Structure prediction request, 114 residues.
Amino acid sequence: MDMPDWVTGFPGAVTVSDGNHRILWMNDKAAQVFSSDGGRSLIGGDLMACHNDRSKEILRRMLADGKPNIYTIEKKGVKKLIYQTPWKDESGRVAGLVELSLEIPFEMPHFVRS
Prediction:
């Protein structure tokens, strides 16, 4: 799977899997984030092997209902926004999942715009 250069060097982690939970692609940041688990050697592997039972059920649900899973975490003193969402093929069918992991400040402005 080829991705544009801007995605490869994007400062947030981007991981793409197919509908059978096979990891298809990771950008540089994702490979770095998951380096202790194998980094790019995870490509071709089973996404489910990296998750607990609760998370596996969420991944299955996203593939079934086409809705995203969005939350924040704190790990090792870093706060992150995790945005997991299905991606669709040319025919509009859910074909897999994309996970974006973005480091965010603990305190950040929130604006309401009309």
Remarks:
- DSSP finds three helices and five strands in the chain.
- Residues 53-65 form the longest helix (13 residues).
- The two ends are 39 Å apart (CA to CA).
- Helices lie at 5-8, 28-33, 53-65.
